[in-house]
Amino acid sequence: xxxxxxxxxxxxxxxxxxxxxxxxxxxxxxxxxxxxxxxxxxxxxxxxxxxxxxxxxxxxxxxxxxxxxxxxxxxxxxxxxxxxxxxxxxxxxxxxxxxxxxxxxxxxxxxxxxxxxxxxxxxxxxxxxxxxxxxxxxxxxxxxxxxxxxxxxxxxxxxxxxxxxxxxxxxxxxxxxxxxxxxxxxxxxxxxxxxxxxxxxxxxxxxxxxxxxxxxxxxxxxxxxxxxxxxxxxxxxxxxxxxxxxxxxxxxxxxxxxxxxxxxxxxxxxxxxxxxxxxxxxxxxxxxxxxxxxxxxxxxxxxxxxxxxxxxxxxxxxxxxxxxxxxxxxxxxxxxxxxxxxxxxxxxx
Amino acid sequence: xxxxxxxxxxxxxxxxxxxxxxxxxxxxxxxxxxxxxxxxxxxxxxxxxxxxxxxxxxxxxxxxxxxxxxxxxxxxxxxxxxxxxxxxxxxxxxxxxxxxxxxxxxxxxxxxxxxxxxxxxxxxxxxxxxxxxxxxxxxxxxxxxxxxxxxxxxxxxxxxxxxxxxxxxxxxxxxxxxxxxxxxxxxxxxxxxxxxxxxxxxxxxxxxxxxxxxxxxxxxxxxxxxxxxxxxxxxxxxxxxxxxxxxxxxxxxxxxxxxxxxxxxxxxxxxxxxxxxxxxxxxxxxxxxxxxxxxxxxxxxxxxxxxxxxxxxxxxxxxxxxxxxxxxxxxxxxxxxxxxxxxxxxxxx
Lengths: 349, 349
What we know:
homodimer; Rossmann fold; five-stranded parallel beta sheet; two-stranded antiparallel sheet; 12 helices; globular
């Protein structure tokens, strides 16, 4: 998660640390970890987060909003996801793939062909994937909510203005009061319409808090998603709940889940987060031959470079050793040639 | 573009500016603009870039690389694109859509159905799109190179370590010497294989410099893309060249371009960048009903939140006015109730 403001603030301390920027790392990482834990359903932060030095934060707040917003630096991830045509195109592309897939699977079902669930069955592994049986259960598509179905513009605009750490309590207040300040992700409303026309139930499985179910349902309705019913088409997280598998297995009791849609790997199976693999290992799990075929064919992923489980990794975890490059302009200068010595007879050695 | 290190360095100056962070904006924006101009083919920066305050940059450099890299903060965009399973999944998903599309179009051609070009014809507009005629020209798919076909790990790792501004001359040295330090984008090599097996020519159209054609061809070969021939299957930018349309029209003289693949809107048509529309306008252009159907169906977009034309926008450009949210905890405190006055007869008003 790019939280530029605390990084700026911390540099006052960072410059005191000779030749390194380590002071800035824990806060940004801590904020990202806290946000991710929360969104994974871990509503209790079990590890204290490092705090920025006292007085270091520049709080812009809502005072004199106009002047302040003119000077707010928007983190690049937000420029990308909320501002760019590129992210709109990526989202439309993902949702077009979903549209085509839903229509094809609904058509299979209507002519009596078997359709398969894309929920990994209990006990399955990524090396040996097994999917839940569908039988004649009604078809469903399961969406995550945040940055999958809706863009949390109001919350993130506030976050961009205020900087500082991610605040779980503020997020809960956002769930309760932010209703009209979201926008649908490009392409999602057409996908929901196509699903419903094809007889595919639209279900939401989110780590938003169960206590805010009514507000979340109202938010979805206001954003154009129609009615949802908690426990049927809206599934939320209990306090301290880790992961979404329990809920997707519960959904699979009632429905044949032919597609899952999310912005983070945990929106597809908890197995991606189960054993806290190293960064490269997790990337390999998502690309492995037993599951890679699912991307765009049952598992549909929307971009989110702003927060979440994707934003992990130290330098050595993100950049492989064998891909290190040295700018030739930084190479050591050529050694000064040794002076030529002459012998007493004048010849050169 | 998230260039966290210069932001950190600049805070020393930023904290002197009461209540705002404006000092940090120009450098990050300037670096992003410079990078984008370069990648658009504008090899001459025609506008001087703001420089960080003297002495403010903490240069980690390649000295004592091991200790330095342990403390290098990786920008979240790089964590996302290079490290995460999410980005791998998004890339695999985009390339799966391409695979399916290429096979379908090649099949159409093989049974005598007409196939259409996805290159907008000269004079077409996004409101009135018209595509080049294909006739019987051999089929081709056109790929951008950077962060579409290859991940520039070596260059970006160096950039993460050194911080500072994007340096165009350094990029040119990277083109010349970085050959083995890239990795193919997840999914691309399978797509190239599928294209070739389906008889679809694989062509690269990149804003890398024409002077470095041999090095770029060698880099592609070493990364598994096979042989390319400059002027046939490899198209590069002349100095000062803006945009890619001239080249894609030249490619279309020889080939029926049935698919284009890129990470920025300019990889599809220069029209997205032609009139420097405002951020929201450009996003609307990409989502407009006359072109939105192309995403995933002829135009295939790979994620890139690290640099490029997607990383634009001030606060007010990225966040619409009507999506502003005030945290209830920030609301003005309730006014203190007026004291109750009593009349001389003791009753309460």
